[in-house]
Amino acid sequence: MSKDIIDERSKKVLCSVIESYIRNPEPVGSRFVTRRYALGFSSATIRNIMADLEEIGFLSQPHASAGRVPTDKGYRFYVDYILDIIDSSHDEELEQFLLKLNSRLVTIRQEFNINTIFTETTDAISALTNYIGVITPPRPQCTTFKRLELIRYRSDQVVAILLTNEGIIKNKIIQISSSYTQDDLNKITDYLNSEYIGQTLDKIMTLLNEKVSKEKSQYNDLISKTIQIYEEALSLVVHDIFISGLYDAINLPDFADISKIKELSNAIKEKHLILRLLNEFADIEGVQVIIGNENPIDELKGLSIVASTYKDKDRNMGVIAVLGPRRMDYSRAICMIDNVAKLVSKTFD
């Protein structure tokens, strides 16, 4: 959206209304803006400007006697406007948060337990913001295979333990044909662990399928079984996501209504929806912001999302995001996500 669509006076009034509403979710009146902000305009002038902003869709009025509240369109203009002027150096609490998180990640980095890194990072994000912290693990095309272990659990179930060179350790009980013996499982893991170490997770699937099509030999049965098991094991990473902060978020006034709480809870339970959305950011540089109805996924339209990728050198590995109400403190959220993504990227260096 063009930043020149409204004049400087209107920008100041719009920012004042939005920042007031972020602090306190009550309709904002012209008299309040006049008293709270030294804009140098009379209450009547501000009232007229607010009416103009409502007319172009940046503000709305819940009812005739109330003040104004921001619309998604107003928030979008505000976010685009502040992106160039955000400065986290004046936010002491955020600075302290980043210092503590960096110190903690340095400690965890010694073990390089990536699960702990992601869990503690999302916990820290939600603790600071009262929003929902989310991280997607490295994508299969960025994750290299180290080892797979398969342990027979029941006649039709196996415990799969997947390790990657990036430090991911995942385990899951997966369903298999009852015809598989532990000896079959050992042959599968011996084959994978000897042939494919260091290959990316998605490349392995391509190589296995190529073998099936090219080799008509005694190993076909082994490779076919390997593909079936490996597809299940791959889902340990592909469908994973780290989420923290639902309890903190439902205590926000934006989710005071029970229907809003249910809507938020259902959105978080459907992790594949969040994963699908965040994967759209995986190859985009810089901080991305989606506001309310801009969201392409219906179940998430009640939320705003601020996201950025974390990297291993020049490769985008996954996405770090914060999910919250439309009435999000966008300035702080953008600063925080940008800096947290850089801190997590350091763990891969």
Could you characterize the architecture of this molecule?
The protein has 349 residues and is an alpha+beta fold. The chain folds into three domains: 8-82, Winged helix-like DNA-binding domain superfamily/Winged helix DNA-binding domain (Arc Repressor Mutant, subunit A, Orthogonal Bundle); 88-137 and 241-348, Beta-Lactamase; 141-238, 2-Layer Sandwich (Enolase-like, domain 1). It is 50% helix and 17% strand. It has helices at 8-23, 30-36, 43-55, 72-82, 92-109, 114-129, 182-195, 201-214, 220-238, 246-250, 258-269, 271-279, 330-348; strands at residues 59-60, 69-70, 132-135, 145-154, 157-164, 169-175, 242-244, 288-290, 304-312, 315-324. It has a five-stranded antiparallel beta sheet with strand order 7-3-10-9-8. A three-stranded antiparallel beta sheet has the order 4-5-6. The protein has a two-stranded antiparallel sheet with strand order 1-2. Strand 1 (59-60) and strand 2 form a beta hairpin. Helix 2 (30-36) packs across helix 3, helix 5 (92-109) packs antiparallel against helix 6 and helix 5 (92-109) packs parallel to helix 13. The longest helix is centred in the middle third of the chain and has 19 residues, at 220-238. The two termini are 36 Å apart.
